[in-house]
Amino acid sequence: DPRVCSQSDFVWYLLFIELPGFYYDPEKNRYFRLLPGHNNYNPLTKESLQYKEMECKRLKLLEEEEMQKKKTSRAGLNSSLVLRKRQLGLLSSTNYCSLVHELKVNCMQRRKVEIRSPDSSVTGTNNFKLIVADTACERIFTVNDVEHGGCKYGIINLSGLGKDSLTVEMYDNLYFTNRKVNSVSWASLTHQDSHLCLMGIAETPGCASLLPASLFSNSNPGDQPGMLCSFKISTAWSCAWCLNPQADNCFSTGKQECICTTSQGERAPPSWPPSGLAQMMATPVLYNGCRSGEVFSIDIRQRSRRGHSWKAVRLFHDSAVTSVRLLQAEYYLMAADMAGKIKLWDLRAVKCVKQYEGHHNEHATLPLQINEEEGLVTAVGQDCYTRIWSLQDAHLLRMIPSPHPSSRDSIPSVVFSSRLGGSQGVPGLLMAVKQDLYHFSYNSDNPYCP
Questions:
Q1: Pick from 298, 185, 301: which is nearest to 240 by CA?
Q2: Is position 246 within any domain?
Q3: Has residue 108 got a pLDDT over 50?
Q4: Which of 42, 149, 425, 440 lies in disulfide reach of 419, CB 3.0 to 4.6 Å?
Q5: Which secondary structure element, helix H or strand E, spans residue 415, and what is its range?
Q6: Residues in Cβ contact with 325 at an 8 Å cutoff, skipping those fewer than 6 apart
Q7: pLDDT at residue 223 is higher than 60
Q8: Of 263, 295, 316, which residue sits at a domain end?
Q9: Helix/strand/coil for 410
């Protein structure tokens, strides 16, 4: 019995936590027998104990955030020190901006956003599955799960988001489908972010679609375009759009068996054998993250070539790659996998140069976001925590708990930008979870913030 030992309870807890068939309760200072089974009726299963521990941690972090106990992630870092170093010429403009955003990120406060819609019956009734912002962060495309099956699509205008206003407007039209959506990408066919690439699956078959964004607005009811491109495919996981004119308005889909690329209007898209769980297009080069853990690039102008010779760059993770993002200079690529690893690769030296620790993933396809101007990396883990790292040195800056209890069907979807709502917009994080939309705004009232 650890109670009669001279060593501390904490040491005994570390020594005996893995005792087979038992668990140690530090509050009651004693052991309890674990019961067999994995159902919800057994209160002392390993899974239920882990969930209880995670929930206690989440509630404690939420309480600290509400009491504004957030401090900087680096010891001694504050706004006065950053400003003084800048004035002395010890910080470049880029480093100074990154540190300011780092301080602001640590001070973000959660506020709930009201979603207004012409049809009040469709707001707040279905769970958000994902949100994707356009290039200017003026709009977000939303995908909601519908109770009777399938998905509901919509577009939300963020122009009303501000310091004093927490209201956003849903476009007039909603689009319903019986297909589940795996991936969404904004596409620029007639002008910037004019269309949406959608990857949907059903029992059989799946579908890849190119949908006009103007379809969701009733501003010109007499001139409503229809779906430009839609073709049936097997189970698909990812999509990407290419802006390069040499690619002739191409978008790519990562299927279970192969990778397809197609131009708008093509019926039979050319394909490559390896499957792609994650994709990213830059110039006419397509980067693919695969179930095998391999990341490779393809020049889509050479779609007639076959064999390994068309793989220009090859990188390897130990687990299935779920997200790939290319930095603006196109010398570095970031990839996340199902082992929770996030790595920054140097494409010239073909080696990993940084690793971002703390991300949690076991089997989900979770997106990764890079904000180079702010020097930040954002990812939501399978444990429902949103983590923000410094892009420059991979330091974990902030871990944000979900406002709702953690579960597989309530993983938040987030968008971060210093201009939410356009060029004159507000900075911060937008989080969609369950039926709610939250804005984590920069707060200048905190003494740690500039």
A1: 185
A2: yes
A3: yes
A4: 425
A5: strand 413-420
A6: 280, 333, 334, 335, 368, 369, 370
A7: no
A8: 316
A9: helix
Mean of pLDDT over the chain: 78
Residue 145 φ/ψ region, left for φ over 0, alpha for ψ in the -120 to 50 degree band, beta for the rest:
beta
157: which residues sit within 8 A by CB, 6+ positions away? 138, 139, 168, 169, 170, 171
Q: Hey, what are 81's tokens?
A: 């020190």
Of 138, 131, 157, which Cα lies nearest the Cα of 415?
A: 131
Which domain does 235 fall in, by range?
179-316
Q: CA torsion angle for 10, 12, 13, 17 (degrees, to 10)?
A: 160
31 closest CA partner among 43, 18, 48, 47: 18
Per-residue tokens: 200: 């949907």
CATH code for position 185: 2.130.10.10
Tell me what the mean pLDDT of segment 128-156 comes to: 88
Structure confidence at residue 7 (pLDDT):
43
Domain count, the chain: 2
Q: Among 316, 342, 375, where does a domain finish?
A: 316
Its pTM surpasses 0.85: no
Contacts of 171 (CB under 8 A, 6+ apart): 154, 155, 156, 157, 216, 217
Q: Which long-range contacts (CB under 8 A, 24 or more apart) does 81-89 make?
A: 82/450, 83/450
Q: Which of 361, 367, 442, 359 is nearest to 394 (CA)?
A: 359
Q: Considering the domain boundaries, does residue 13 fall inside one?
A: yes
Q: What CA–CA distances, in Å, run from 213 to 101, 141, 185, 197, 266?
A: 32, 9, 11, 10, 20
* Cα(232)–Cα(208) distance, integer angstroms: 7
In a domain, 141, yes or no: no
> To 10 degrees, the CA torsion angle through 441, 446, 449, 450?
100
Is 160 a residue whose pLDDT tops 70? yes
Q: For residue 11, how many other CB atoms are within 10 A of its CB?
A: 11
pLDDT value for 324: 92
Q: Give the residue-averaged pLDDT of 29-58.
A: 68
CA 430 – CA 235 distance, rounded (Å): 30
Contact 158, 168 (CB under 8 A): yes
Q: Where are the alpha helices (DSSP H) in 154-229?
A: none
Residue 217 lies in a domain: yes
Alpha helices in 206-337 (DSSP H): none
Cα 431 to chain center, whole Å? 10
- Give all strands of the β-sheet with 180-187 in edge-to-edge order: 180-187, 195-201, 206-212, 229-233
